[in-house]
Amino acid sequence: MLFHNVYFWLKPELTPEQRAEFRRGVATLAGIKSVDKVTIGVPAGTTRRPVIDHSYDVALIVECRDVAAEAAYQVDPIHLAFVANCKHLWTRVQIYDSE
User: Fold this and answer.
1) What is the CATH number of the domain that holds 13?
2) How far is Cα 36 from Cα 44, in angstroms, rounded to an integer?
3) How is the beta sheet containing 35-41 ordered, strand by strand?
4) Model confidence pLDDT, tens digit, residues 16-61
5) What is the dihedral of CA 6, 56, 85, 98, to 10 degrees?
6) Residue 63 forms beta bridges with which residues?
7) Strands 35-41 vs 90-98: parallel, antiparallel or unpaired
8) Burial class, 64, CB count within 10 angstroms (exposed 0-12 / middle 13-18 / buried 19+)
9) What global pTM score does this model have?
10) How many domains, the chain?
11) What is the chain's mean pLDDT, rounded?
12) Residue 70: CA count within 13 A, CB half-sphere
């Protein structure tokens, strides 16, 4: 199993409607055939500790069966459309892939 963990920092001046637009865009990624599962979340209300980063706005976890499936996800038209349609809404993206 491959876990593609993506963290987004949205532009602070976004309206609630723009934030909702972003969430709808992220949700479309679940329609990609090479993806087994998509989970979307926000920073948890866990205890503040130096080792925990709560600074991001939205977390996306994409589960794929292997590296080949994740590679197919990257070039899928749904993923490419999400990036094209939503990249103007974020200031930073950080990705951590693990197997």
Assistant:
1) 3.30.70.100
2) 23
3) 35-41, 58-64, 2-10, 90-98
4) 999 999 999 999 999 999 999 999 999 999 999 999 999 999 999 9
5) 0
6) 3, 37
7) unpaired
8) buried
9) 0.94
10) 1
11) 97
12) 18
